Amino acid sequence: MTTMTKQEMQHMIAERVAKELKGPMSVNLGIGIPTLVAEYMEDDDIYLHTENGLLGVTDVEEEDIDPNLVNAGKLPVGEAVGAAYFNSSESFAMIRGGHVDAAILGALQVDERGVIANWAVPGKNIMGVGGAMDLLVGAKKVYVTMTHTSKDGSPKLLKECTYPITSTRSVDMIFTELAVFEVTEDKQLRLVELMPGATIEEVREKTEAAFIE
Amino acid sequence: MTTMTKQEMQHMIAERVAKELKGPMSVNLGIGIPTLVAEYMEDDDIYLHTENGLLGVTDVEEEDIDPNLVNAGKLPVGEAVGAAYFNSSESFAMIRGGHVDAAILGALQVDERGVIANWAVPGKNIMGVGGAMDLLVGAKKVYVTMTHTSKDGSPKLLKECTYPITSTRSVDMIFTELAVFEVTEDKQLRLVELMPGATIEEVREKTEAAFIE
Amino acid sequence: MTKRKQSAAEALELVKSGDTILVGGFGLIGAPLTLIDELTKKDVAGLTIVSNNLGESGKGLGILLNQGKIKKGIGSYFTSNRDVGDKYQAGEIELELLPQGTLAESIRAGGAGLGGYYTTTGVGTALAEGKEEREIDGVPYILEKAIRADVALIRAHKADTLGNLVYYKTARNFNPLMATAAKTVIVEVDEIVEPGELNPEEVVTPHLFVDAIIEAKQVLTKEGVVSV
Amino acid sequence: MTKRKQSAAEALELVKSGDTILVGGFGLIGAPLTLIDELTKKDVAGLTIVSNNLGESGKGLGILLNQGKIKKGIGSYFTSNRDVGDKYQAGEIELELLPQGTLAESIRAGGAGLGGYYTTTGVGTALAEGKEEREIDGVPYILEKAIRADVALIRAHKADTLGNLVYYKTARNFNPLMATAAKTVIVEVDEIVEPGELNPEEVVTPHLFVDAIIEAKQVLTKEGVVSV
């Protein structure tokens, strides 16, 4: 694992999440690793939603970039066949109302019930939340992607989040470069898969949260 | 006055209200006498709103009737130049949000503060309200048109409404075949005009509500 | 993938007794007449119907009413069908009357994942009875709750096979709202086209709201409702 | 009648110190760059700006921020402009952070004449502090209040001279909402056309919301903001 670059790690996680997506479905991709998921989706019946007002996001060639056509990360995107534009209240009505099938989000921390923190760090100014809280309460399924540990090696899967939580709702699955967890109905983490090259010992060592093996 | 048909009376009232409308403005016309007001509007900058989803109502020739293009009374209408269609929640957002400049409505009763009853009769089933309550709370100005008395000759301008009120909001002006009243800032009726052929004695006799002469 | 169904019967397969059903239209204008017609042939009862009106006497939802399949009606203007009053007098139907803007807004709130909202409409009237009143910034409002349903039956003009919808003139009315507020959304349209044929800027209902599409077989014309 | 104004300065005549101003855009995308530019030249102070972001550092609303004209910002993602943090640390600006969907919904509620609404977003988080929580049908919600403003500065694609508006791709974002929630609504567009040139089925903002229209002179391109 130590020979993998950060970028390779991110792509590996993105590729793994993509396998969970079976169309027809609508999916909202967050910033960071989630954005990479689009590269690995195999099903044609997956429709990407971006909360700034488009259902039907595709990638775009450099020469076709339109400065007024972007995703929630303000990156240039393309318009899929069968797309639709809408305003921000309509977009979040879709999200909050339960009409988006899945959201793939990054996280700073996840607790052992699957509750995540992904919008603020204590001690710093709380300056931005964007659509994170709306996606957490509204998306039918929430999949979290993140590196298993922080830069300093400390676990991100914790007993309790020490950062402000994004929602009281537990996510459905968590994907790291070491493992895939699901959150059970009674809100426990369950290890469902080791990622290539990872060992159960390494996962145990780098995870503070209790999980079912 | 007694030689006037009911239809003539209605047209006379409609013609008088039309004089109050100075564009640019958006106006919602209710069912009955208010619908006739469109025939007498002299200003080109008046845009008619109908709560079933159209700004830019015009009249329509028999041969151009489209069964899917109607006003709130379900009567066929035409589409003006510069019109726009919208859904029912957008339409009532316009009304309730104070974006429609004037509503012209019928009334069953008006009390001496200008509060009206126009949607239900006690003792009968309360079966329909439509957009009446929304227009009352939302339109910037509300003009009421009605015959001065009921079929049995009893006054409709009363001390208190005996029918269920439509809103606690006082209307702005009341137009009958006998007189024009405005509602003052301190919520009193003030006679501003006698209609052609009417006498102050007749208005006094047929009006139960107190009014300033 | 296509959401096109071969018949109204196939589209209505999931509808069952006791369901709450949103039905589009302002009277017969923009009402899903083909789906309503099929519903009158289906063996269901105890329905709660949310619709501006309950059709006209013997037309549209009026047929369903006369069949006794409607347990409760939620709408703003039942006066357009005189049979509703008779049923109500006979104790055969419950009714909930809402101002038209409140009916529309409550359905939108349901679709948008809201619990309820404070509106000025109806404050101080008989329709505010039993509803919480509260002042916000000095203005009195009443609390109205969101409306959500099991099924929505709606009418649009065109659909692509993904389920994107555009509407036609004042037949739009409640339909786009209702498309957002039910677990299963069934649409009838004049024409079904391929994805890419509708302009993305002009789509009113994006496809993620829609479950099934059929072509309309009962259509409102100048001469009334006709089969096509 | 035409709502066309000859200059941004003329369009902004009514704007005054202490105003609450809604400003469209998601970052610079769909932001009314010409009107913002003119606002930076105007002698006003103590503004409350409601906008998803406060521009970028030294761009769009970021200039207004650095001029010290903004007393308070209400938005969802100030992180996109690092200057906001510095101003906040220095106690030179108040900030109110809302989830993006709540920001959008509160503006819509303001335009729709509602007092507030119950949303699930934010329940149990730091952003729910001080907000009323209440269960409706077993689900916990928090109360969010409507947002209304003195002025809205928005960006659309085309306007007719009456004020009907259509938008362009993801530059639509908050603009149609903001058009409904201010006493004075000022729009900049790529093109002003005659009434009748926009299809009534495709108008997104009907003209009764709009007060003044100008042609955009500052435009976002692949190369950044340029004057045209």
UniProtKB/TrEMBL annotation, chains A, B:
InterPro entries: 3-oxoacid_CoA-transf_B, CoA_trans_fam_I, NagB/RpiA_transferase-like
Top-rank taxon, per record: Bacteria
Assigned keywords, A-Z: Transferase
GO molecular function: CoA-transferase activity
A Pfam family that the UniProt record links to this protein: CoA_trans
Record Gene3D superfamilies: Glutaconate Coenzyme A-transferase
NCBIfam families recorded: pcaJ_scoB_fam
Family: Belongs to the 3-oxoacid CoA-transferase subunit B family.
Protein name: Acetate CoA-transferase
Taxonomic lineage from the root: Bacteria, Bacillati, Bacillota, Bacilli, Bacillales
TrEMBL record, chains C, D:
Lineage of producing organism: Bacteria, Bacillati, Bacillota, Bacilli, Bacillales
Key words, A-Z: Transferase
Record-level Gene Ontology MF annotations: CoA-transferase activity
Pfam families: CoA_trans (PF01144)
Organism of this sequence: Bhargavaea cecembensis
Name by which UniProt lists this protein: Succinyl-CoA--3-ketoacid-CoA transferase
Superkingdom of the source species: Bacteria
Signal sequence region: none
SMART domains in the record: CoA_trans
